[in-house]
Structures are given as structure tokens and as C-alpha cells.
Amino acid sequence: MSKRALLIGVNEYAIPGANLRGCVNDVHHMAGALSELYGFAESDITMLLDGAATKAAMTQGIADLVDSAEPGDVLYLHYSGHGSNVPDTNGDETTDHRDEILCPHDLDWNDPLTDDWLRTTFDRLDPGASLTVVMDCCHSGSNTREPVLLGGPPPEVVSRFLPNPDDEARGGGFTGTPRRVRRRRRAEDVHVVDIAETLVSGCRDDQTSADAHIDGDYNGALTYYLVRAMREDPQSTYRALHARTLSGLRGNYDQVPQLEGRAPRLDQTFLSGVG
């Protein structure tokens, strides 16, 4: 059995005005927790930061993580950065007709990294391996990690929305964060997460994920409170860790991180193998 992780953090974007501040810190904090608490060797933790987090590097890294898995392996994938959406091209998004995307450093709207590609890749996972995915981004609609300062006067909130050029061409003048209606998918549209795969996303699809100034530095609010929860009780189940993370966010941020997976998996210890 091996334990391997791919951690992606993008503060610096090739698109002018799109930079963030807490994503690289997210990666370093998570790497420390994985090695100190969960037995991941530093040599088995791969980081893609800023300019190194190109689409080619991200897709290669994710594919390698999944395709090299053997029975008993424990895999962890973390992404901190922008998310957005593009028009659906294959007809599988029957409700809002948008594909969600992750935004690499060299984002190309005409060649995006879509949720369809992620789904197809994750489906190749060896059934005897386990994969935990944490997405600290607004990857489903509003595509923003908002900088928030705790304490003192209310901060000026800078919207980090990457407007899709296709939307702008249709007359959309996005000056802030668009709020899409939360999607209610029909049962046949919903992918059921495999028992060995667990997803923690930064927020609901009608919310934003925060770039927050916490303890003197910038962090993703989800990652900060998730790492804190991991350190408070490394033997938590996925469900208990999610609840502890929510309690840290509650009262400070509106975002509600989502936990997806089959019930038996959610009641297993965080980053444990297939039981």
C-alpha cells in the first residue's frame, strides 16, 4: 500500500487581474498535515504551484495519480484556485447547460479543464484504491474566492470572477459575482460518487469560496478550517471532519462546504483505505 498526494495551488494567473492570495499557502498547510498526521512521505507529495500549474501539468498529474493506483493505495487530490463554467458541449448538463471547470495558470477558454474530463479520469480508479478530492474553489458557477479580513471594519470585498468571454459576447457585463440559481438536477443527471471516492468542495454551487486573511496570512477558508480540524482529531471520520470544518466556518463565512460520497465511506476514518 502506498500513500500519494497531488496538491495544486494557483495564486498567479496569466489572465490579468485574476490573481489570488491564499492558494499556495493552502497547499503548504495541507502538505504539512498529510506528512505529519497521515504518514504521507514528502517524496510522495507532488505540488503544482502558480506557473507550474498549467493545464497540461494538471491533467498529467491527475491522470498519473489515478492510473498508477493499486489495490490498497490511498490517494489525495487537492485544488485551490479559481473555478468557472463554460457552455456544455456534449448534452450531459441538462439543467443549466454549463460544464464546470478548474482554472489552471494558463487558462484557455477554448480548451478548458472540465468536470467531464475529471469524471472520466476518476472513473478509471482501481476499485481497491481510495481517492479523496478536496476542491477549495468556486468551481461550479460564480467562480470566486473572495478575500475577507476577520475583525476590524468590514473589508472591501474584491470579486475574483473570471468572466467567460462567451457570456460577455452575449452582452453580459459582469462587474461583480454572478449568482446562479442553485441547480436541482434530475436523478438521472447525478453521478453517484464511487464508494472509494470522496469529494469535499468549498461551497454549494450558488456560493463563493473565500480567500481569507486568517492568523496573519491569506488562506482558503475551507482549507484553513479543514487542516485545523485534521490537527484537532486526525482519527475523525469524513463525516465528523466535515462537521468540525463547518463549525469553524460558521459565523465567519457564508459558504457551506459539501461532502459527497457513499454513506459507508463517509463513516470511515479520513484518508483510510478501502474498508
Describe the protein's architecture and organization.
- By secondary structure, the chain is of the alpha/beta class.
- The chain contains 7 helices and 12 strands.
- The protein has helices at residues 23-37, 55-67, 115-122, 165-169, 221-232, 238-249, 263-266; strands at residues 3-9, 45-49, 74-80, 83-87, 98-102, 113-114, 130-136, 145-149, 197-201, 209-214, 217-220, 258-260.
- It has a 6-stranded mixed beta sheet with strand order 2-1-3-7-9-12, sandwiched between helices. Strands 4-5-6 form a 3-stranded antiparallel beta sheet.
- Helix 1 (23-37) runs parallel beside helix 5.
- The longest helix is centred in the first third of the chain and has 15 residues, at 23-37.
- It is globular and about 45 Å long.
- The two termini are 13 Å apart.
Taking the alpha carbons of the first and last residues, their distance comes to 13 Å
Radius of gyration: 18 Å
What's the overall average pLDDT, rounded?
77
Q: Give the strand content.
A: 15-25%
Query: Unreliable runs, pLDDT <50, ≥5 residues?
Result: 140-144, 146-161, 171-195
Q: What would the principal axes of the Cα set say about the shape?
A: globular
Helix content: 25-40%
Number of helices: 7
What about the largest sheet? Answer: 6 strands, mixed
Q: Order of helices and strands, N to C?
A: EHEHEEEEHEEHEEEHHEH
Adjacency order of strands in the biggest sheet: 2-1-3-7-9-12
Strand element count: 12
Structural class: alpha/beta
